[in-house]
Inverse folding.
């Protein structure tokens, strides 16, 4: 029973990660360029933004809960050595950064002040969807590294 529950938890964790990062990739590569080209009506763009924001909020909750369960479960096993712990800590820190970017962005609504520097524009560009997509891709890579460390430890 416990193995089945862990399988469901891993699946929920993966689905939430794919939904968030995949949605961000879709926005970054498809929706935003179509918006800038005037091909997406403003009401549709607002609707998509609201719906995706709700999805991201759900994903954050699912990822935090399932990640905590999976982290405790894996760290309680003998195969989780120092390299696993350090790699997991990096994954958790990057995930927290993603979560922070979303929460900070929601708190910054409203127009951007005039006269922003080029550096501020670049920071803003990396501060939301672009950066969450990049961080998400790196976190997926780190997940594979974690899996490799466990498989290597089990192989002996």
């Amino acid at each position: 029973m416990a193995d089945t529950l862990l399988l469901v938890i891993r699946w929920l964790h993966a689905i939430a990660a794919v939904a968030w990062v995949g949605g961000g990739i879709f926005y970054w590569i498809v929706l935003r360029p179509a918006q800038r080209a005037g091909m997406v009506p403003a009401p549709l763009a607002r609707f998509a933004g609201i719906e995706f924001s709700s999805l991201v909020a759900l994903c954050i909750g699912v990822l935090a809960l399932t990640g905590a369960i999976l982290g405790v479960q894996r760290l309680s096993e003998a195969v989780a050595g120092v390299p696993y712990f350090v790699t997991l800590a990096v994954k958790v820190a990057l995930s927290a950064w993603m979560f922070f970017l979303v929460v900070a962005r929601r708190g910054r609504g409203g127009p951007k002040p005039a006269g922003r520097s080029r550096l501020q524009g670049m920071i803003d560009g990396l501060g939301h969807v672009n950066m969450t997509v990049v961080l998400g891709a790196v976190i997926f890579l780190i997940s594979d590294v974690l899996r490799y460390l466990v498989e290597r430890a089990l192989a002996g």
Observations:
- The longest helix spans residues 2-36.
- The chain has five helices and no strands.
